[in-house]
Amino acid sequence: MEFGPGQFGKWLILFGIIIVAFGMMFLLLGRLGFFRLPGDLHFGSKNWHVFLPITSCILISLLLTIILWIISYFHR
Q1: How far apart are CA 20 and CA 34, in angstroms?
Q2: Which residues in the chain belong to E strands, given as ranges?
Q3: How far is residue 23's CA from residue 1's CA, in Å, rounded to a whole number?
């Protein structure tokens, strides 16, 4: 497989589409209240704010694990 400027451009376009899809997914999930789950921690005062999305990260990890497992299962 030859890896020239054309192939590199195709890979950049593919990664750009993937990044846009993830961005849109996070915007949609945020509007649905996904990042306000009971295990997500919020700390702060008037001048600072810390948000630790522990439960959201666990759910995202589980979803990605299931999706990648399904893709791997059918790819064999």
Answers
A1: 19
A2: 41-44, 49-52
A3: 31
67: which 2 tokens? Answer: 């999706």
Whole-number Å distance between alpha carbons of 32 and 36: 9
Buried b (16+ CB within 10 A) or exposed e, 11-36: eeeeeeeeeeeeeeeeeeeeeeebbe
Query: How far is residue 46 from each of residues 42, 43, 49, measured CA to CA in Å?
Result: 13, 11, 8
Stated pTM of the model: 0.58
Q: What is the pLDDT of residues 32-42, one digit of tens each?
A: 877 788 888 99
